Structures are given as C-alpha cells and as structure tokens.
Amino acid sequence: MMKSTIYKHGGDYEAAAKWMDEARSMDTADRFVNCKSVKYFLRVNEIERAIETAGMFTRDGLPPLQMLDEMQCMWFQTELARAYWRLGCFGEALVKYHEIDKHFEDIIEDQFDFHTYCMRKMTLRAYVGVLRLEDKLQSHKSFFKAAQDAIELYLYLHDKPDARRSKAPPVTPTVENDLSHLSASERKKVQRKQRKALARAQAKAELEKEKENKHNTKQEDEKKSHDDSKPKFNSKELLEVEKPLEEAMKFLIPLQTLCSERIETHLLAYAIHSRRRKYLLMLQSLKRSFNIDQTHPKLHLYLIDFILLLEREKPDFPDPVKLVIEQTIPRLTLGRSLDDMNHDFIITHSKSLSHLMAGAQVMYRLHSDKKNEAILLITSLSDELTDRSLKTCQSVFGILKSGTLGDCTNIISSYVAECHKLFPLATCFKPPLDA
User: Fold this and answer.
1) Which range among 38-52, 59-73, 402-416 shows the weakest confidence by mean pLDDT?
2) Cβ(375)–Cβ(400) below 8 Å
3) Which of 30, 151, 286, 433 has the fewest CB atoms in 10 Å of its CB?
4) How far apart are CA 420 and CA 5, in angstroms?
5) φ, ψ of residue 311 in degrees (nearest 5)
C-alpha cells in the first residue's frame, strides 16, 4: 500500500492501481483495502475491474452496481461518474450524479419515519440533532462534490453541443492529457482499448440486469417493487437534454442555499449566468465571491472577463440596472484600471503558480502581443513557488495545450521535459515513446 501511495502522489496512477490490487490480493477479507483498490481502478478508467473487485463484498445474486446504489455508496458513484466522464460517456456520468442527488432526497424523506418513534421513545436530544442535520443535509461534502462535477459537466455539454449527440464516445481533454506522453499511433491504441473496456463493462452490467430479472423468489419480487418506486434515469435522455444550463441550475440552487460560505458555489454560479448573459446575477456572484476571498485566482479571471464582456457587447440596460453596475464595479476593482489590477495581482502573488496562471491568462486577453511574457510567467518552475505541485503543473500543461494563450506548440516539449525532471514518475510528463 505504501508503494501504491508513492506512485499515486508521483503521478503514475496505473502503477498505483497495480500495487494496490497486489495489496488487496494479500488479504481478500479486508474491506478497506478492497475499497482503495476499487477507487484506484476507477481513477485509471478500469471500470470493469473496479466493479468486479467491488462485487467481492456485495450480496450474491445481485449485480454489484445495483447493490452499491441501494447501499447509497456515494464515493463509488462519484468516482465511477468521473471515470465515465474521462472516457467521454457523459450520459452514464450524469446518471450517477442524479443517483447521488436522489440519495439525498431519499434521506430527507426518510426523516418522517423517525418522528413518531423519537416522540414515543423520548429520545428528544437525538431527535433535535437529526432535525438540524436534515436542515443542512445538502451541504455535505459528498453532495457538494457530485453537484460541482454535474454542473461542470453540464457547462461542458453546453459549450460543446456536438458532445450531446455523438455516437462514439469522444475523448475528453483530461484523457488526452493523460495520454500526451504517447505517440499518435500508441494514443489511438490506448483510446481504442479504453472504449473496448467500457463496452465490456456496459455489456456485463446489462447481462447482470437480465439475470436479476429472471429471479422469481419473493425477496427479489419485493426488491423489484421497491426499485420500481424509484425513478430510473436514462443516460440518453439526460445527455440529449435541450437546455443543459437549466439542469445545472437544479444542482446549483441547493449549493447557494446551504453552501453560500464556499467561494466555489458563487464561481459556479457565475460560470452558469455568464453563459445565460444574466448580467445582474453575474455581478451578484462576483460580489459574493469578493466578500469571501478577494485574492482567489478564478475570481480575478472572472472579474476581468465580466468587465471586458460589458465593454465588448455594450448591452442596453435599464437605468436602474446601469446604476447598480456602475456603482458596484469600482468597489470590486478598487478604482483601478484592468492593467493596474492585473499588474498588482501578479506582483502580490508572484510566488503562487495558481495565481500566476490567472494573471497570465488576463495578460494575454488584455494584450495578445504579450504572449511570450505570459507564457514565461507560468512556465517558470522556480524553487520560490509555494504551490509548485504536480496538480498545478498539470494545469499549466493544460493551458498550454488548450490554446488559451495562443499557439504554444514550440514551448510544450521543453516544459514537459522540465516537469519530467521534477516529477519523474508522472505519466503525463514522460517523453513520447517514439522520441
């Protein structure tokens, strides 16, 4: 397990999954190690092996996926949804996110079963505790994590409508980054292997469902009637929804109600409202984020984006709306110009790579001729950086590949080589096999 953990933090997730499974095989009765092995398999998109491993601790005669859903095993469903997302199976990912949402609805409804019991047994202290828990249930980290992922997926589907109608599952940018160390031919082979593994997993799940329907025992009939009372989510219907932003709002509203103290809630709200061109709601999200953390890198990026959007589109606001915007923006910018804001931001956070990424993107948006300066800003791997981690370097790599700073093909290879020296185990920074 220690060896697996070292590989995981080093960035070689396939080796980590291999050694965690080796640890599991040494004690097949250990549920904790089994769960760790399942999680590691899902993080390398080995869905079939993950389900098979998880099935070692589920009830015989029932498909593991159904059993884990009935047990409300939300960590598994979250990791499974992310694996589906990385493989480009967005409909299946949405099914898992909606199942997690349904779990919390069931928990809220089940509280009514405890009312008469608690009053009869006079366990008032525990009863009050349950009521207080139910009042803020959807602020739980499991719901927040699933809702955040679901919102980001719906935003992705809104930005790329073709992904909602594609027959073959596309490869998302996250997967491409994971395979960037391979040559073009090797990358195609791996992607083909991933799609075949996913197809096998889906076929196996369908076969298990067919077996389940053939059971005629009383217990299975009761379970079937119980399952029929639950809504069945159709991956195709969820994927082909006409208005993804409205579906994203359904996940956002509970977060705004119960997680208003988290800046991520308001940044997600801005991301949705900016696509709907709801300017007052965008400004409200920026203001709430500003009150929580004025130095957040994404807030800096969104604030500049909002001001540039107003200058570019010049929307015709009613006088009251125009007055609110004109009074609020100077409070957020502290009366500074956009160039001064970004300059101060970069100087103040010169030792934070996360902040420098935001500053570099703003610099390029304001002055495209400063592309080289922006690239130099984020590709520096100085020892003075406080957050020079594998995760932040992968984010920089993603920015360089996405074209956010223009064409960066001439700098990518040198940056990957420098990162490979820092993180020799990381598969995303390994040189191409045909190099």
Assistant:
1) 59-73
2) yes
3) 433
4) 19
5) -70, -35
CA distances from 396 to 197, 350, 372 (A): 30, 15, 14
Report the sign of the C-alpha dihedral through residues 68, 251, 247, 403, in that order: negative
Q: What are the structure tokens assigned to 260, written together? A: 């208003």
**Which of 80-94, 105-119, 418-432 is the least confident region?**
105-119
pLDDT in the model for residue 59: 79
The interaxial angle of helices 31-43 and 47-54, nearest 10 deg, is 170
* Amino acid at residue number 370: K
Three-state SS sequence of the chain: CHHHHHHHHHCCHHHHHHHHHHHHHHCCCCHHHHHHHHHHHHHCCCHHHHHHHHHHHCCCCCCHHHHHHHCCCHHHHHHHHHHHHHCCCHHHHHHHHHHHHHHHHHHHHHCCHHHHHHHHHCCHHHHHHHHHHHHCHHHCHHHHHHHHHHHHHHHHHHHCHHHHCCCCCCCCHHHHHHCCCCCHHHHHHHHHHHHHHHHHHHHHHHHHHHHHHCCCCHHHHHHHHHHHCCCCCCHHHHHCCCCHHHHHHHHHHHHHHHCCCCHHHHHHHHHHHHHHCCHHHHHHHHHHHHHHCCCCHHHHHHHHHHHHHHHHHCCCCCHHHHHHHHHHHHHHHCCCCHHHHHHHHHHHCCCCHHHHHHHHHHHHHHCHHHHHHHHHHHHCCCCCCCCCCHHHHHHHHHHHHHCCCCCCHHHHHHHHHHHHHHCCCCHHHCCCCCC
CA distance 361 to 338: 13
pLDDT tens sequence across 286-334: 999 999 999 999 999 999 999 999 999 888 889 999 999 999 999 999 9
